[in-house]
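Design request, tokens follow.
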């Protein structure tokens, strides 16, 4: 009898520990500097709301946390502190860590992607910014690659701008531009621009896409799961909860994501090698061109040269 009760207690304890492990709270991280939130407070509010809703889907307590620096976010991922996260695909294109894309966020236009723009205080064309200082929302150190390879498709020399600096986020980049602390800024093409600024170029663009009606867009932040800690059923539950989430004016909701969305951005970071123009001579030869201006003659040989002399006796 004692042994039976002992076995029952062991089984109960194992089940209780398993339930406690499953009921552990989750943290939904937010690292999306390009998302045009109007303020840090708006970022925090959305992250908290999203954490609560996704926690309900997993039947655990959920919370959100905003990361201002790529290094802090990467460290949290490495330590396993983040289960789910809303992240810029351009950052994921070069970041380490195993993740699974679950959903794509929707912007104010109910789209999963958006164009970018080059906004400047002065000038009327791109050439006016040669040698100027420009800003771009932080990408963890690959801001210059993002500008020259992804936004310009390799068609602008890497020495065109005097300096490309990272801003904490889109709102900070526009604020610095409005205060005259930078000559121009690369930001998503959403929202109002500061006074005395103008959009010079709609991006991404390249020499090939200049003839197109509109430049190809870049994806909005995507919802990802880190570390393989969620089962397929749990990921599906998170997807359904995200699709029913009512966000704010910046992230209005979520939709199904293309599983290759991040791989597509990775390819944009490696634009095709461009070669200078070269000429190939025509392979067709015209007989008249070969004979023009030339004189041809066959020298005549006397017939006696071909005669055989008669033998002598």
């Amino acid at each position: 009898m004692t042994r039976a009760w002992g076995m029952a207690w062991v089984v109960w304890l194992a089940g209780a520990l398993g339930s406690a492990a499953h009921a552990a709270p989750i943290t939904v991280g937010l690292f999306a500097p390009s998302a045009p939130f109007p303020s840090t407070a708006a970022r925090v509010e959305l992250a908290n709301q999203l954490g609560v809703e996704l926690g309900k889907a997993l039947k655990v307590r959920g919370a959100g946390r905003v990361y201002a620096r790529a290094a802090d976010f990467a460290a949290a991922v490495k330590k396993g502190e983040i289960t789910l996260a809303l992240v810029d695909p351009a950052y994921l294109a070069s970041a380490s860590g195993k993740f699974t894309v679950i959903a794509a966020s929707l912007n104010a236009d109910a789209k999963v992607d958006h164009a970018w723009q080059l906004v400047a205080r002065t000038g009327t064309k791109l050439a006016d910014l040669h040698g100027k200082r420009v800003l771009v929302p932080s990408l963890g150190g690959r801001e210059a690659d993002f500008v020259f390879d992804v936004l310009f498709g390799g068609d602008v020399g890497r020495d065109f701008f005097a300096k490309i600096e990272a801003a904490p986020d889109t709102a900070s980049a526009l604020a610095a531009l409005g205060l005259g602390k930078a000559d121009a800024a690369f930001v998503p093409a959403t929202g109002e621009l500061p006074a005395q600024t103008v959009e010079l170029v709609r991006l991404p663009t390249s020499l090939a896409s200049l003839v197109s009606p509109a430049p190809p867009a870049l994806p909005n932040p995507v919802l990802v799961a880190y570390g393989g800690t969620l089962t397929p059923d749990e990921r599906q539950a998170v997807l359904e909860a995200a699709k029913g989430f009512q966000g704010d004016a910046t992230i209005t909701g979520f939709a199904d994501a293309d599983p290759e969305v991040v791989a597509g951005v990775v390819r944009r970071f490696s634009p095709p090698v461009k070669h200078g123009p070269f000429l190939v001579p025509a392979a067709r030869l015209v007989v008249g061109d070969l004979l023009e201006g030339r004189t041809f003659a066959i020298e005549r040989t006397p017939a006696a040269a071909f005669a055989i002399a008669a033998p002598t006796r």
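Comment from the thread starter after seeing the answer: thanks! The chain is about 30% helix and 20% strand.
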